[in-house]
Design goal:
single chain, about 425 residues, alpha+beta, Nucleotidyltransferase, domain 5, six-stranded mixed β-sheet, globular
């Protein structure tokens, strides 16, 4: 069986025809990039039609590249949360606010002060700006009060895309966990308490179904445009990190380590307990829960260091030699605060800064300070997972395995397994 997998990220959509049994692309994935809109410094949004065009372009390119293969299913992996509000004619009322948006900081601060502990122990997470779509909704209504009277449907991006394809609306449990409206660690139902608190009409929210659910068949018009048979089954899918977990086949004593702008650690706890230091949510497929933590000094910090201070050094020498030399150095400066990759788990704005700079500071000191901050950030993120034992396997996506293993002795004797295109390939597991 061959399926079309669509993975929606923060700057591009990837699509590939996969052999479902192996989760391997039959040809190289297609990619359609798009730009985020930043109408204010704290804003991060996507015009809906811009996102749909990127999805459609990537899908068409992937299908064309794999011509000759019969497409028997379509599935989604998608950034989350990404709020989509529809009117009575099913048209988006506003741009899609994504997880990088920080306009709801004032509301997040108020919610945390007002009902923070109650929110944490029912929703599973703090009321994070951008991290809970109900806060995005609340801030949008503050900014544009007239929109509330027009809202008829409240979705996240994967639900909206699936609706465009099938005409059926739904949430998967992973995305529902990131609304701030769902009893993630209580009854796993839409919460009247939190709907009332944020002014969301319960009737706007569709059913919550497993991400492996087939919502319906692909609409004839889209099928004709993409070049696949009408009625091809479409699965809702779930969050991109969850999809990567599905691709690995992780067990309880395994760990996912994603190297990117930040470094993301994820594990599958047997008994979820909310904590301010991490995200606690449902996987989105099946009944499993996920803990997610973040190290704000991610892999991009190394490329930033390379570009900032080592432009005369080849990438091969920088990553293959200088980083390991810097690891052996005791730096004279510190990177503190360390928030080079942003503040995803913070309500207040956080930034990075070097301390102890002097005229004797050299570029190797700066690189060594970044690496120390990366190691310390990892230790804090790892500790927030509350693991009793060292992981048996660490699934690494995003590259840099040699650097990660040298930098992070916590992994000890764990088997380090590289996984490429995890979010994309995890879509195949929706048919597992």
């Amino acid at each position: 069986m061959h399926i079309l997998a669509i993975d929606v990220g923060t700057s591009a959509v990837k699509a590939a025809v996969l052999d479902q049994s192996t989760a391997q692309p039959v040809v190289a994935p297609a990619k359609a990039s798009y730009d985020l809109a930043h109408p204010t410094p704290d804003a991060a949004e996507i015009p809906p039609e811009r996102l749909w065009k990127a999805v459609s372009d990537a899908a068409k390119e992937a299908i064309h590249a794999a011509s000759g293969y019969l497409i028997e299913g379509i599935g989604l992996s998608c950034l989350t949360p990404a709020l989509v509000l529809l009117d009575q004619h099913d048209q988006p009322l506003a741009p899609i606010w994504i997880h990088l948006d920080r306009r709801s900081r004032p509301l997040a601060r108020t919610v945390w002060q007002d009902v923070g502990q109650e929110f944490l122990y029912t929703i599973g997470n703090r009321p994070l700006p951008g991290g809970m779509s109900a806060l995005c909704y609340g801030q949008l209504i503050v900014d544009e009060p007239g929109i509330r009277k027009q809202v008829r449907h409240y979705l996240h991006a994967n639900g909206w895309l699936a609706y465009r394809m099938t005409g059926v609306r739904a949430f998967d449990p992973g995305n529902a966990s990131f609304t701030g409206l769902y009893g993630t660690v209580t009854d796993r139902q839409w919460s009247s308490r939190w709907c009332d608190y944020f002014g969301v009409d319960r009737d706007w929210l569709p059913d919550v179904v497993c991400g492996s659910t087939t919502l319906g068949g692909l609409r004839a018009q889209i099928a004709a445009e993409w070049g696949v048979p009408a009625g091809v089954p479409v699965k809702l899918g779930t969050a991109d990190t969850s999809s990567a977990i599905l691709a690995t086949g992780m067990q309880g004593n395994d760990l996912l380590h994603v190297v990117g702008t930040t470094q993301v650690l994820a594990t599958l706890p047997p008994h979820p307990v909310p904590d301010e230091r991490r995200l606690t949510r449902l996987l989105g497929v099946g009944d499993a829960y996920v803990y997610v933590t973040h190290n704000p000094v991610g892999g991009v910090a190394l490329s930033w260091s390379n570009e900032l201070a080592f432009r005369d050094v080849s990438a091969e020498d920088f990553y293959g030699k200088l980083i390991f030399e810097a690891l052996a150095r005791r730096p004279k400066v510190t990177l503190d605060p360390p928030f080079l990759g942003g503040d995803r788990l913070e309500i207040e704005a956080r930034f990075a800064g070097f301390q102890g700079l002097s005229l004797t500071t050299d570029r190797m000191d700066l690189l060594a300070a970044v690496l120390v901050a990366m190691r310390n950030g990892h230790r804090a993120a790892y500790a927030a997972l509350d693991r009793d034992e060292a992981p048996e396997r660490v699934y690494l996506t995003g590259g840099g395995a040699d650097i990660v293993k040298a930098l992070l002795p916590e992994y000890g004797a764990a088997e380090l397994k590289l996984i490429e295109e995890g979010s994309l390939r995890g879509v195949a597991k929706l048919w597992g």
